[in-house]
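TL;DR need structure tokens for one chain.
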Amino acid sequence: MREIVLGTAGHVDHGKTSFVHALTGIDTDRLEEEKRRGITIELGFAFLDLPCGHRLGIVDVPGHEKFVKNMVAGATGIDIVAFVVAADEGIMPQSREHFDICSLLGIKQGLIIITKVDMVEPEWLEMVHEEIRQFCIGSFLEGAPMLPISAINGVGISEVKKELDTMVKNIQFTEAFGPFRLPIDRIFNMKGFGAVVTGTGISGRIKVGENVCLYPSMQTAKIRGIQVHGQDVVEVESGRRTAINLQGLEKEFVKRGNMLASPQSLSPSYMLDADFLYLVNNNKPLKNRVRVRVHIGTAEIIARLVILSQEEILPGERVDCQILLEEAIGVWPGDHYVVRSYSPVRTIGGGIILNNKPKNKRRRFKKENIEAFELYRSGNPGTIAIFHLNESGIQGMTVNELEVYLGLFGRRLKKILEKPISTGEIQVVDSDRQWMISALTISKLKTKTLAILANAHRENPLKKGINKEELRSKISQKIDHKVFHLVLNQLEKDKKITQEDAIIRLSGHQISLKENEQETKKIIKNLLKNGGLSPPTKREITSALGKDTGSSIDQLLDLMTNQNEVIKVNDELYFDQQVLNLLQKETVALLVKEKQINAQSFKQLTGISRKYSIPLLEFFDKIKLTMRVGDNRVLRTRPPHINQDTD
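>> reply
TL;DR here they are.
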């Protein structure tokens, strides 16, 4: 059963630690300095076994303003807050700041503990009672139980236990879905065992022997042991105060603020899209790109707050922003964060992460920002998945990458993807890799492909089409072959294009020669045929027909080659097909008889000069009719017929 965590909050010296001690019998001040100074500096931990049979984990946070960052770290993972106010002082500065932090972190349940009631008169206690009630109006603590206690004489402690028992019994427990995540709040070495980290698990479950990853450094380790409240356990789930002994990771490489999580469950980023609330009790507007301290989980990171739709934020306003971090962090959408001013340090706002890894820095005052943030807030994971796929473009995303972007894993995400995949809004490129691309991206690629083909036909009307690899590079050097073939296959199915071997053309494209082109083609055909085995070169043909026909001669020779009227031996030499077919038969016959030929015997067979004989021999090697062995050529076992495009 998932453990519920109770956390304290309140001003320094209001009796939070004494309250926990009276409630549990555990002194959470473990440092010598804490005992000497009489204040809590670091996080303290305890537990309470309730009558309902549930064990309540307890985090005691420091109240002094110098240690608020430690308080924020401890508040991560709290389910119920005990808002502690001393009867002799009432609401104080850190009471307000801790209260704001709890609200910003999304804590929904709590109870109000009025301490030191033995130090005030009943009339004064009534005034404090009313002050707290007024303070909590409109908040998650409005209507919360308010319990007066004394840690000195034990007054009210039994009532607190009863109230906590009732609250926990009424909580609807849910299964710990998804990968395990534990924001680290403490690191130490245990002699003979190595590095130990502690924190409150905020998602999933983990077992001894499983691998974990440290984010953002991406270092991996193995879980050697797990303890919950000093007891060894084999498995732990979210909600429990946990100590994990790591194998393969030294203490020096770990720090508070790191996240220990299941491998491939997070993707560290320096940018976050977020909703931001600027607290109403701030006394001046907040400027764009102000430097701030961002608290996420147990981490504190310096960052810039980019306001996307206005120049400054007024107290009480909620805006869309992009957070530019100075250190990378791995989070999920839906995680809460707190913002404190850079200097002087105080809590000024916070909100919820909406996109944990934006593709680019956002340009301010753009319509697409409004559309993106409206989509984030829709909370529709299927639509948000399509949005991320659209942004990923031709790279697409795997299911695992989408899991990290959405914070949804396994069967839960696959169920969400069923509909958009079935409707074609998401298209599967590779089912083995679970790699997908959006229909919008495919549509854009189709449009671009058709435009490239249309342009190629205009520029080269005598060409049958465009080579497949050339077409792919014109679309994008980065497009994967599988995405490219998916686009081609869909266009062919729609009868928009025709694929003939390695040549792609628009389905309606036909080669149509003009009258002068037909005449030029006829002249070339005759020149090559009459030239026999000593035909004019392309340069000689061009010279004979005139310089102005140079480019069209190239196109006509390509056309004649594709139509199997001539054979291209190299860039300058073309032969009439019938002439070259006859030479092939004679060459095969000679090789069958003599077993081998050389340049001299081939010259005797053909009666041609080296200008033609050497290129022809190399051509026969190229089409695998012959094979060179030293200075000789031998016949290959199965020579192909020459009637083919060999370019």
